[in-house]
Design brief:
The chain is an alpha/beta fold. 24% of the residues lie in helices and 27% in strands. The chain contains nine helices and 17 strands. Strands 3, 4, 5, 8, 9, 16 and 17 form a seven-stranded mixed β-sheet that branches. The protein has a six-stranded parallel β-sheet with strand order 12-11-10-13-14-15, with helices on both faces. Helix 9 links the parallel strand 16 and strand 17. Helix 3 packs across helix 8. The N and C termini lie close together (10 Å).
Protein backbone atom coordinates (compact mmCIF):
# COMPACT_ATOMS: atom_id res chain seq x y z
CA UNK A 1 0.00 0.00 0.00
CA UNK A 2 0.98 3.65 -0.39
CA UNK A 3 0.54 6.33 2.26
CA UNK A 4 1.40 9.85 3.37
CA UNK A 5 3.14 9.47 6.71
CA UNK A 6 4.03 11.94 9.47
CA UNK A 7 7.42 11.11 10.96
CA UNK A 8 8.10 14.31 12.88
CA UNK A 9 5.95 17.23 13.95
CA UNK A 10 6.18 20.46 11.94
CA UNK A 11 7.48 18.49 8.95
CA UNK A 12 5.75 17.69 5.65
CA UNK A 13 4.13 14.29 5.30
CA UNK A 14 6.27 11.75 3.43
CA UNK A 15 5.12 9.51 0.59
CA UNK A 16 5.92 5.91 1.58
CA UNK A 17 5.25 2.40 0.34
CA UNK A 18 4.39 -0.06 3.11
CA UNK A 19 3.31 -3.72 3.24
CA UNK A 20 -0.43 -4.25 3.07
CA UNK A 21 -1.66 -4.35 6.69
CA UNK A 22 -3.16 -7.55 8.08
CA UNK A 23 -6.31 -7.22 10.21
CA UNK A 24 -6.36 -8.69 13.71
CA UNK A 25 -9.21 -10.97 14.84
CA UNK A 26 -11.56 -8.05 15.60
CA UNK A 27 -10.44 -5.83 12.73
CA UNK A 28 -11.22 -5.22 9.08
CA UNK A 29 -8.98 -4.13 6.23
CA UNK A 30 -10.38 -1.35 4.06
CA UNK A 31 -9.44 -0.31 0.56
CA UNK A 32 -9.89 3.45 0.84
CA UNK A 33 -12.06 5.35 -1.61
CA UNK A 34 -11.75 8.80 0.00
CA UNK A 35 -10.47 10.45 3.17
CA UNK A 36 -11.49 13.89 4.34
CA UNK A 37 -8.91 16.43 5.49
CA UNK A 38 -9.80 17.76 8.93
CA UNK A 39 -8.46 20.61 11.06
CA UNK A 40 -7.60 17.97 13.66
CA UNK A 41 -5.07 16.62 11.14
CA UNK A 42 -3.38 20.03 11.27
CA UNK A 43 -3.26 19.82 15.06
CA UNK A 44 -1.62 16.39 14.74
CA UNK A 45 0.96 17.65 12.24
CA UNK A 46 1.68 20.72 14.36
CA UNK A 47 2.18 18.67 17.54
CA UNK A 48 -0.64 20.41 19.39
CA UNK A 49 -2.19 17.17 20.71
CA UNK A 50 -0.48 15.19 23.47
CA UNK A 51 0.89 11.64 23.17
CA UNK A 52 0.57 10.79 19.48
CA UNK A 53 2.06 7.63 18.01
CA UNK A 54 4.83 8.52 15.56
CA UNK A 55 5.33 7.77 12.78
CA UNK A 56 1.61 7.92 11.99
CA UNK A 57 -0.58 7.98 8.89
CA UNK A 58 -3.13 10.78 9.55
CA UNK A 59 -6.74 10.90 8.48
CA UNK A 60 -9.99 9.97 10.23
CA UNK A 61 -12.78 10.72 7.75
CA UNK A 62 -12.43 7.45 5.87
CA UNK A 63 -14.81 5.83 3.41
CA UNK A 64 -13.91 2.61 1.64
CA UNK A 65 -14.76 -1.01 0.92
CA UNK A 66 -13.90 -3.91 3.18
CA UNK A 67 -11.10 -5.94 1.64
CA UNK A 68 -10.54 -8.52 4.38
CA UNK A 69 -12.22 -9.58 7.63
CA UNK A 70 -10.63 -10.61 10.91
CA UNK A 71 -11.57 -14.07 12.17
CA UNK A 72 -14.01 -12.74 14.82
CA UNK A 73 -15.86 -10.28 12.57
CA UNK A 74 -19.37 -11.51 11.78
CA UNK A 75 -21.44 -8.34 11.44
CA UNK A 76 -19.74 -7.00 8.29
CA UNK A 77 -18.87 -8.51 4.91
CA UNK A 78 -16.17 -8.24 2.28
CA UNK A 79 -17.09 -5.60 -0.30
CA UNK A 80 -19.31 -3.65 2.09
CA UNK A 81 -18.76 0.12 2.21
CA UNK A 82 -17.95 1.49 5.66
CA UNK A 83 -16.90 4.74 7.30
CA UNK A 84 -14.14 5.02 9.88
CA UNK A 85 -14.28 7.99 12.32
CA UNK A 86 -11.85 9.64 14.76
CA UNK A 87 -12.80 7.37 17.69
CA UNK A 88 -11.12 4.11 16.73
CA UNK A 89 -11.27 2.04 19.92
CA UNK A 90 -12.37 2.26 23.56
CA UNK A 91 -11.56 0.03 26.51
CA UNK A 92 -15.16 -0.92 27.26
CA UNK A 93 -14.71 -1.20 31.04
CA UNK A 94 -13.86 2.23 32.48
CA UNK A 95 -16.50 4.39 34.19
CA UNK A 96 -17.23 6.33 31.02
CA UNK A 97 -17.58 3.30 28.76
CA UNK A 98 -19.99 1.66 31.19
CA UNK A 99 -22.09 4.80 31.65
CA UNK A 100 -22.87 5.69 28.04
CA UNK A 101 -19.97 8.14 27.62
CA UNK A 102 -17.46 6.14 25.58
CA UNK A 103 -16.33 9.37 23.92
CA UNK A 104 -14.62 10.15 27.26
CA UNK A 105 -12.99 6.69 27.61
CA UNK A 106 -9.90 6.62 29.83
CA UNK A 107 -7.98 4.43 27.37
CA UNK A 108 -9.08 5.33 23.85
CA UNK A 109 -7.34 5.00 20.51
CA UNK A 110 -7.93 7.53 17.76
CA UNK A 111 -7.77 7.01 14.01
CA UNK A 112 -4.88 8.91 12.45
CA UNK A 113 -3.39 9.62 15.88
CA UNK A 114 -2.72 6.32 17.70
CA UNK A 115 -3.98 4.07 14.89
CA UNK A 116 -2.95 4.52 11.27
CA UNK A 117 -5.54 6.52 9.36
CA UNK A 118 -6.80 7.21 5.90
CA UNK A 119 -4.06 9.17 4.11
CA UNK A 120 -3.34 5.89 2.36
CA UNK A 121 -4.65 3.44 -0.18
CA UNK A 122 -5.51 0.91 2.53
CA UNK A 123 -5.95 0.80 6.31
CA UNK A 124 -7.05 -1.47 9.17
CA UNK A 125 -9.77 -0.57 11.66
CA UNK A 126 -11.53 -2.07 14.66
CA UNK A 127 -14.70 -3.53 13.14
CA UNK A 128 -16.75 -2.39 16.13
CA UNK A 129 -15.98 1.23 15.25
CA UNK A 130 -16.85 1.03 11.56
CA UNK A 131 -20.15 2.49 10.33
CA UNK A 132 -22.01 0.81 7.44
CA UNK A 133 -22.42 3.49 4.77
CA UNK A 134 -24.67 1.82 2.21
CA UNK A 135 -24.26 2.26 -1.52
CA UNK A 136 -25.85 5.67 -2.13
CA UNK A 137 -23.63 8.67 -2.73
CA UNK A 138 -19.99 9.08 -3.71
CA UNK A 139 -17.15 8.32 -1.32
CA UNK A 140 -15.79 11.87 -1.57
CA UNK A 141 -19.13 13.36 -0.53
CA UNK A 142 -19.62 10.99 2.39
CA UNK A 143 -16.12 11.21 3.90
CA UNK A 144 -16.52 14.67 5.57
CA UNK A 145 -19.61 13.39 7.38
CA UNK A 146 -17.34 11.12 9.45
CA UNK A 147 -15.94 14.03 11.49
CA UNK A 148 -17.08 17.44 10.29
CA UNK A 149 -20.63 16.13 10.27
CA UNK A 150 -20.43 13.97 13.39
CA UNK A 151 -18.74 16.55 15.62
CA UNK A 152 -21.18 19.19 14.43
CA UNK A 153 -24.05 16.82 15.25
CA UNK A 154 -22.74 16.28 18.79
CA UNK A 155 -22.27 20.04 19.19
CA UNK A 156 -25.95 20.49 18.34
CA UNK A 157 -26.92 18.06 21.09
CA UNK A 158 -25.01 20.24 23.56
CA UNK A 159 -26.39 23.49 22.14
CA UNK A 160 -29.99 22.52 22.89
CA UNK A 161 -33.11 23.13 20.88
CA UNK A 162 -33.05 26.93 20.71
CA UNK A 163 -34.26 28.58 17.51
CA UNK A 164 -31.40 31.04 16.93
CA UNK A 165 -27.97 29.40 16.60
CA UNK A 166 -24.66 31.08 15.80
CA UNK A 167 -21.76 29.37 14.05
CA UNK A 168 -18.25 30.81 14.44
CA UNK A 169 -15.91 29.63 11.68
CA UNK A 170 -17.52 28.62 8.41
CA UNK A 171 -15.51 25.63 7.22
CA UNK A 172 -16.26 21.94 6.73
CA UNK A 173 -18.27 21.38 9.92
CA UNK A 174 -20.31 24.58 9.73
CA UNK A 175 -21.27 24.12 6.09
CA UNK A 176 -22.72 20.70 6.96
CA UNK A 177 -24.40 21.68 10.22
CA UNK A 178 -26.07 24.76 8.76
CA UNK A 179 -27.93 22.35 6.49
CA UNK A 180 -29.01 20.28 9.50
CA UNK A 181 -30.20 23.40 11.30
CA UNK A 182 -32.14 24.65 8.29
CA UNK A 183 -33.76 21.19 7.92
CA UNK A 184 -34.78 21.47 11.57
CA UNK A 185 -36.35 24.85 10.90
CA UNK A 186 -33.87 26.91 12.93
CA UNK A 187 -32.23 30.25 12.15
CA UNK A 188 -28.48 30.35 11.59
CA UNK A 189 -26.20 33.33 12.24
CA UNK A 190 -22.77 32.84 10.65
CA UNK A 191 -19.57 34.47 11.91
CA UNK A 192 -16.41 34.45 9.77
CA UNK A 193 -13.01 36.07 9.99
CA UNK A 194 -13.56 39.83 9.69
CA UNK A 195 -13.73 40.85 6.05
CA UNK A 196 -13.96 37.32 4.64
CA UNK A 197 -16.62 38.17 2.09
CA UNK A 198 -16.26 34.87 0.22
CA UNK A 199 -17.07 32.75 3.28
CA UNK A 200 -19.88 35.13 4.17
CA UNK A 201 -21.39 34.75 0.70
CA UNK A 202 -21.04 30.96 1.04
CA UNK A 203 -22.91 31.05 4.36
CA UNK A 204 -25.69 33.16 2.83
CA UNK A 205 -26.01 30.72 -0.06
CA UNK A 206 -26.64 27.93 2.45
CA UNK A 207 -29.39 29.82 4.22
CA UNK A 208 -27.83 31.91 6.99
CA UNK A 209 -30.24 34.66 8.01
CA UNK A 210 -27.36 36.92 9.07
CA UNK A 211 -23.62 36.88 8.42
CA UNK A 212 -20.84 38.99 9.83
CA UNK A 213 -17.34 39.08 11.19
CA UNK A 214 -16.38 37.39 14.44
CA UNK A 215 -15.74 40.89 15.82
CA UNK A 216 -19.41 41.82 15.38
CA UNK A 217 -22.48 41.18 17.51
CA UNK A 218 -25.57 39.62 15.94
CA UNK A 219 -28.66 41.82 15.52
CA UNK A 220 -30.34 40.05 18.46
CA UNK A 221 -29.18 37.72 21.27
CA UNK A 222 -28.83 34.07 20.25
CA UNK A 223 -29.94 30.93 22.06
CA UNK A 224 -26.57 29.23 21.56
CA UNK A 225 -23.39 29.51 19.54
CA UNK A 226 -21.01 26.80 18.35
CA UNK A 227 -17.32 27.61 17.96
CA UNK A 228 -15.74 25.61 15.16
CA UNK A 229 -12.80 28.01 14.78
CA UNK A 230 -10.06 27.02 17.28
CA UNK A 231 -9.63 30.58 18.53
CA UNK A 232 -9.84 31.11 22.28
CA UNK A 233 -10.78 34.78 21.92
CA UNK A 234 -14.10 33.66 20.45
CA UNK A 235 -15.25 32.26 23.81
CA UNK A 236 -15.93 35.69 25.39
CA UNK A 237 -17.19 36.92 22.02
CA UNK A 238 -19.66 34.05 21.94
CA UNK A 239 -20.80 34.75 25.51
CA UNK A 240 -21.60 38.32 24.51
CA UNK A 241 -23.62 37.06 21.55
CA UNK A 242 -25.96 34.77 23.50
CA UNK A 243 -29.00 35.62 25.61
CA UNK A 244 -29.32 35.03 29.34
CA UNK A 245 -29.12 31.27 29.90
CA UNK A 246 -27.51 30.81 26.48
CA UNK A 247 -24.73 28.34 25.67
CA UNK A 248 -21.32 28.56 24.05
CA UNK A 249 -20.28 25.16 22.66
CA UNK A 250 -16.59 24.67 21.85
CA UNK A 251 -16.43 22.09 19.07
CA UNK A 252 -12.69 21.79 18.50
CA UNK A 253 -10.22 19.30 19.94
CA UNK A 254 -7.69 22.10 20.39
CA UNK A 255 -8.01 25.84 20.94
CA UNK A 256 -5.66 28.73 21.43
CA UNK A 257 -5.60 30.25 24.96
CA UNK A 258 -8.85 31.77 26.14
CA UNK A 259 -8.31 35.38 27.30
CA UNK A 260 -9.59 36.55 30.67
CA UNK A 261 -12.97 38.23 30.74
CA UNK A 262 -15.14 39.87 33.38
CA UNK A 263 -17.64 37.79 35.29
CA UNK A 264 -20.61 39.79 34.00
CA UNK A 265 -19.87 38.33 30.54
CA UNK A 266 -20.64 34.85 31.93
CA UNK A 267 -23.25 35.85 34.50
CA UNK A 268 -27.01 35.28 34.15
CA UNK A 269 -26.53 31.54 33.77
CA UNK A 270 -24.70 31.56 30.47
CA UNK A 271 -22.77 28.33 29.94
CA UNK A 272 -19.53 27.21 28.27
CA UNK A 273 -19.25 23.56 27.31
CA UNK A 274 -16.73 21.57 25.26
CA UNK A 275 -17.35 18.62 22.96
CA UNK A 276 -14.95 15.67 22.98
CA UNK A 277 -14.91 13.06 20.24
CA UNK A 278 -18.18 11.21 19.63
CA UNK A 279 -19.97 8.02 20.58
CA UNK A 280 -20.87 5.27 18.17
CA UNK A 281 -24.52 6.09 18.80
CA UNK A 282 -23.87 9.64 17.60
CA UNK A 283 -22.60 8.17 14.36
CA UNK A 284 -25.51 5.79 13.91
CA UNK A 285 -28.07 8.51 14.60
CA UNK A 286 -26.52 11.11 12.31
CA UNK A 287 -25.68 8.83 9.38
CA UNK A 288 -29.21 7.40 9.44
CA UNK A 289 -30.71 10.88 9.17
CA UNK A 290 -28.17 12.42 6.75
CA UNK A 291 -29.87 11.18 3.54
CA UNK A 292 -33.26 12.39 4.79
CA UNK A 293 -31.81 15.82 5.55
CA UNK A 294 -30.48 16.09 1.99
CA UNK A 295 -27.00 17.22 3.07
CA UNK A 296 -24.84 18.27 0.14
CA UNK A 297 -21.12 18.45 0.86
CA UNK A 298 -19.07 21.07 -0.94
CA UNK A 299 -15.62 19.59 -1.36
CA UNK A 300 -12.33 20.10 -3.13
CA UNK A 301 -10.68 16.82 -4.18
CA UNK A 302 -6.91 16.28 -4.00
CA UNK A 303 -4.82 13.31 -5.08
CA UNK A 304 -3.32 11.38 -2.15
CA UNK A 305 0.17 12.67 -3.00
CA UNK A 306 -1.18 16.22 -2.64
CA UNK A 307 -1.97 15.80 1.07
CA UNK A 308 0.56 18.47 2.11
CA UNK A 309 -1.01 20.96 -0.29
CA UNK A 310 -4.49 20.11 1.01
CA UNK A 311 -3.35 20.72 4.59
CA UNK A 312 -1.74 24.03 3.65
CA UNK A 313 -4.88 25.13 1.80
CA UNK A 314 -6.95 24.21 4.85
CA UNK A 315 -4.63 26.15 7.13
CA UNK A 316 -5.06 29.28 5.01
CA UNK A 317 -8.76 28.89 4.18
CA UNK A 318 -8.26 28.58 0.42
CA UNK A 319 -11.38 26.51 -0.30
CA UNK A 320 -15.03 26.38 0.67
CA UNK A 321 -16.44 23.42 2.57
CA UNK A 322 -14.20 20.38 2.88
CA UNK A 323 -11.05 18.95 1.29
CA UNK A 324 -10.95 15.26 0.39
CA UNK A 325 -8.02 13.02 -0.58
CA UNK A 326 -8.65 10.51 -3.35
CA UNK A 327 -6.16 7.57 -3.43
Amino acid sequence: MFAMQLRQHHQPLEWVELPDPEPGPDEIRIRIGACGVCRTDLHVVDGELANPTLPIIPGHEIVGRIDKLGSNVKSLSVGERVGIPWLGHTCGHCYYCTHGMENLCDHPLFTGFNRHGGYATMTVADARYAFPMGDKGEDKDLAPLLCAGLIGWRCLSKAGDGKKIGLYGFGAAAHIIIQVLRWQGREVYAFTSPGDTEKQAFARSLGAVWVGGSDELPPEPLDAVILFAPVGALVPAGLKAVRKGGKVVCGGIHMSPIPSFSYDTLWEEREIVSVANLTRQDGLDFLKLAPEMGIKVTNTPYALKEANQALDDLRHGRFEGAAVLIP
